What we know:
The protein is α/β, with parallel strands linked by helices. It contains four helices and seven strands, in the order βββαβαβαββα. A five-stranded mixed β-sheet has the order 5-4-3-6-7. A two-stranded antiparallel sheet has the order 1-2.
Amino acid sequence: MSNIYDFTMKDAEGNMIPLSDYKNKVLLIVNTATGCGFTPQYEGLQALYEKYKEQGLEILDFPCNQFGGQAPGTEEEIVDFCQSRYGVTFKQFAKIEVNGENEAPLYTFLKEQQGGMLGSKIKWNFTKFLVDKQGNVRDRYAPVDKPEKLEAEIKELL
């Protein structure tokens, strides 16, 4: 795969979604968990989405249970939690793995594009990748980076 738009991912409802559906959008791709110390970042992610969705921001949420088993439950339970607790309206996908032999090819690609000083391995939940409107992976943010920190770069890409 040579481009982010070459990937198709399963959403939380079990539908296969081609990422080419997101051409000409700025994407924030995040591996998430519902029982993590960083889980309150859903609030900041939702705020960014509400503020910039009309300008072309899409947030793609990929729950991952690889870090301390912090994303237990079914996709339906995760979606219910995120909607009821944080009012999430951005796109939620099926649970994936982001490291190891069963990692999603999308994450292999993202890490190859933005290994940088963080190294290629995803260290924890709420690692964020920012993708421009042409599908280029522009930046990678650590779990400790709150969504608000990304706002200036998102605005610039929009």
